[in-house]
Amino acid sequence: MPAFSTTRRVEFGDTDMAGIMHFANFFRFMEVAETDFLHTLGISVSWREDGVKWGFPRVSVACDYQKPARFEDVLTITVTVERIGTKSVSYRFDFHNQREEPVAVGRITTVFCRTGGPDHLESVEIPAELRAKLDGRAV
Question: Which residues on adjacent β-strands are paired with residue 121?
Answer without folding.
Answer: 115
